[in-house]
Amino acid sequence: MNITKNLNGTTLEIALEGRLDTVTAPELEDVVKHELDGVNALTMNFSKLDYISSAGLRVLLSAHKIMAGKGGSMKVTNVNEIVHEVFEVTGFEDILTIE
Amino acid sequence: MKELTVEAVVENIPRVTAFIEEELEQAACPMKAIMQIGLAIDELFCNIARYAYPGGTGSATVRLEIDRAARMASLTFIDGGVPYNPLEKKDPDVTLSAEERQIGGLGIFLVKKTMDGMRYERRDGKNLLTITKKI
User: Fold this and answer.
1) Does the domain at residues A2-98 carry the CATH identifier 3.30.750.24?
2) Residue B53's pLDDT is what?
């Protein structure tokens, strides 16, 4: 998986390419844990993400909690059909802001 | 029938996934089903790697059978670890808010929802978990 970060003031866009799974989720977790200081609007761009497993959902949930905890926002954009189905059946579509 | 036996460690997930994907591609399986099966491998192999052999490691086998006439793929995960039937696990409550959410159990639930069938068997001291998917 490739992670591309684009910080613009207090807005951070993280674009993911590949698969967010057991092996790659720790890479995103590292970014979420260490690079959200001073960020108040987070966008996860999934336009090149093939799929997400429960390991990836765990990281999204912690990012969501970090952003919500400091009154910031987080949205997930450009979700493909497979990722959307995962969000739908797990109820994540009710938790996350998906555009 | 094709099968691959590797040490049950999470580092081997990409190898297992690549092996199965190549076979599915040769069978002209649609990309969406290939990705969903990849997701299922991630969840199920990860469970074996983390829980089948407490305090040690062992092997895991993945066996793929493709019924081209019925357009059906069956993938069986076999391990010699502690008896564990994931189908007995209660489904997680997917209506809880972010604060109340537990991620445990979500993986198996996802596999159940995205595959067409799932069955478990304990045979000769081994766990056999089979998922089926229309391709």
Assistant:
1) yes
2) 97
Please tell me which of the candidates B10, B32, B103 has its beta carbon nearest to residue A57: B103
On chain A, the residues whose CB falls within 8 A of the CB of B10 are: 22-23
Chain B residue whose CA is closest to A88: B94
- The domain made up of B2-134 has a fold known as Heat Shock Protein 90 (3.30.565)
Say which residues have a Cβ less than 8 Å from residue B78's Cβ, sequence separation at least 6: B60, B61, B62, B63, B126, B127, B128
Alpha-carbon gap, residue A23 to A44, rounded angstroms: 19
The residues on B that touch A, with CB distances below 8 Å, are 10-11, 13-14, 32, 35-36, 38-39, 42-43, 46, 94-99, 101, 103, 106-107, 109-110, 113-114
Q: What are the boundaries of each domain within chain B?
A: 2-134
pLDDT at position B102 is 76
pLDDT digits (tens, 9 = 90+) for B32-61: 999 999 999 999 999 999 999 999 999 999
Mark yes or no for CB contact A23/B14 under 8 Å: yes
Question: What residues of A are in contact with residue B46 (Cβ under 8 Å)?
Answer: 22, 53, 55
Residue B103: the pLDDT is: 72
- The Cα–Cα gap between B72 and B70 comes to 5
CB contacts of B107 in chain A (<8 Å) are 53-55
Asked if residue B56 lies in contact with residue B82, where contact means CB atoms within 8 angstroms, the answer is: no
Write the pLDDT tens digit of every residue in A48-60: 999 999 999 999 9
* Domains of chain A by residue range: 2-98
Task: Read off the pLDDT of each residue in A72-90 and give the average, rounded to a whole number.
Answer: 96
Residue A6, strand partner residues: A13
